[in-house]
C-alpha cells in the first residue's frame, strides 16, 4: 500500500498520503472504526473547490458508527495543492480518472471487511464513474450530484449563475492562470484546467473529451453496477432534479434511486447545495444516511422522484 500515516490529536483522523498511478500524491485523512471490525469502508468525494476538511465531522460521525472512512483533497486543492498552481495542468477529468481511482484502490488495499462505498457530494458523485477501479464500489450515496451544465441550474438563478461560473470564472482564470476562488470568496482556488472544464461544460459530459476517448468514458460509467441513492434538495440551485437525473443517466448499469428532500423535512428554512454536511444535521440527515450505508435501505421511500 503506497501510503504514510501520522497520528494527529485525539478525535482526529490519521493524516495519510495516497500515490496516484501517474505519481501525483494526494493528502487526506483516515478514520478507523472502533475495535471489532468495520461495517464497511467509505470514500468521501468532495464537491469542486471544497476542502476535504469540510467533511471531517461527517467522517468522524461515520467512523463512530462503525465505518472506516477516507477523506482526501483532489489534486490542486488543499492538502494536494502543488507549490505552484499556475501551469500545473490538472483537469477535472483527472480528479475522476486518477484521484478517485487512487482513493478507491487505497481503501480496497487496506479493507478489512465489509462493502466499499462512496459518498459523493456534487461533482464527487459523478467522478467515480470515470475511475477504472469504479467496479470495486459496492454502494453509492450522492448528494446534489451534477457536473455544472448551466441548463440544469435552478431557473430563477440560472442567469446569475451563468454569469458567475461561465463568464467571470473563465475571465478570471485567463487573467491569473488559475481560478482565484479564495480571493473572490468563491470556494477554493482551482487549477485552470478544472475551471475551464466547469466553465465550458456542455449538455453532454463526454464531449469535453477528445472524440476518440468518448466511448471509453461512456463504457466506464456504464460498468458501474453499485446501487446508487441520489439525493436532490428542493432549494439546491446547482444540484437540481434535472442535474441529478442527468448524472444518473450515465450510470446506466447501476440500480438507481433518486429522492427529493425539502428543507421542511428537517425543520429548516433552507438547506441549499452545501448544508447537509454541516454537523447541525448529525441528529437528522446524518442518522438517516446510515440506513443506506449500513443496509442499502432507502430511508426516504416517500420522497422518490421518477426518471
Could you please describe the fold and organization of this structure?
The chain is an alpha/beta fold and 307 residues long. It has a single domain (5-154, 208-305), classed as Rossmann fold (3-Layer(aba) Sandwich). Helix content is 29%, strand content 18%. Strand 10, helix 7 (241-250) and strand 11 (256-261) form a beta-alpha-beta unit. Helix 3 runs antiparallel to helix 5.
How would you describe this structure in keywords?
single chain; 307 residues; alpha/beta; Rossmann fold; 8 helices; disordered N terminus
Structure described in brief:
The protein is an alpha/beta fold and 307 residues long.
CATH topology: Rossmann fold
CATH class: Alpha Beta
Q: Record the strand order, biggest sheet.
A: 1-2-3-5-4-6-7-10-11-12
How much is the average pLDDT?
A: 93
Oligomeric state of the chains? single chain
How are the elements arranged and paired?
Blueprint: E1 5-6, E2 14-19, E3 25-31, E4 40-45, H1 56-64, E5 67-72, H2 92-110, E6 116-121, E7 139-143, H3 158-176, E8 178-179, H4 181-184, E9 190-191, H5 192-199, H6 214-222, E10 228-233, H7 241-250, E11 256-261, H8 285-295, E12 304-305
Parallel strand pairs: 4-5, 4-6, 6-7, 7-10, 10-11
Antiparallel strand pairs: 1-2, 2-3, 3-5, 8-9, 11-12
Amino acid at each position: 500500500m503506497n501510503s504514510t500515516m501520522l497520528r494527529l490529536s485525539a478525535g482526529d483522523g490519521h493524516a495519510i498520503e495516497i500515490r496516484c498511478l501517474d505519481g501525483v500524491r494526494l493528502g487526506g485523512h483516515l478514520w478507523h472504526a472502533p475495535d471489532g471490525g468495520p461495517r464497511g469502508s467509505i470514500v468521501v468525494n468532495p464537491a469542486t473547490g471544497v476542502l476535504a476538511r469540510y467533511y471531517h465531522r461527517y467522517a468522524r460521525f461515520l467512523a463512530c458508527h462503525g465505518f472506516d472512512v477516507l477523506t482526501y483533497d483532489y489534486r490542486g486543492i488543499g492538502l494536494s495543492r502543488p507549490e505552484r498552481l499556475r501551469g500545473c495542468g490538472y483537469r477535472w477529468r483527472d480528479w475522476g480518472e486518477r484521484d478517485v481511482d487512487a482513493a478507491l484502490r487505497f481503501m480496497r488495499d487496506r479493507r478489512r471487511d465489509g462493502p466499499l462505498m462512496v459518498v459523493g457530494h456534487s461533482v464527487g458523485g459523478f467522478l467515480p464513474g470515470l475511475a477504472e477501479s469504479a467496479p470495486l464500489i459496492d454502494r453509492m450515496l450522492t448528494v446534489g450530484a451534477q457536473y455544472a451544465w448551466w441548463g440544469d441550474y435552478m431557473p430563477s438563478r440560472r442567469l446569475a449563475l451563468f454569469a458567475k461560473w461561465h463568464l467571470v470564472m473563465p475571465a478570471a482564470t485567463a487573467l491569473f492562470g488559475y481560478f482565484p476562488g479564495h480571493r473572490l470568496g468563491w470556494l477554493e482556488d482551482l487549477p485552470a484546467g478544472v475551471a475551464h472544464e466547469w466553465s465550458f461544460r456542455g449538455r453532454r459530459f463526454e464531449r469535453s473529451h477528445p472524440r476518440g476517448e468518448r466511448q471509453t468514458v461512456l463504457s466506464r460509467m456504464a460498468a458501474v453496477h453499485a446501487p446508487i441513492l441520489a439525493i436532490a434538495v428542493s432549494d439546491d440551485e446547482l444540484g437540481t432534479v434535472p442535474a441529478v437525473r442527468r448524472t444518473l443517466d450515465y450510470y446506466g448499469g447501476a440500480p438507481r434511486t433518486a429522492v427529493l428532500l425539502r428543507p421542511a423535512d428537517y425543520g429548516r428554512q433552507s438547506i441549499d447545495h452545501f448544508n447537509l454536511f454541516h454537523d447541525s444535521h448529525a441528529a437528522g440527515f446524518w442518522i438517516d444516511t446510515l440506513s443506506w450505508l449500513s443496509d442499502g435501505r432507502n430511508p426516504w421511500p416517500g420522497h422518490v422522484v421518477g426518471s
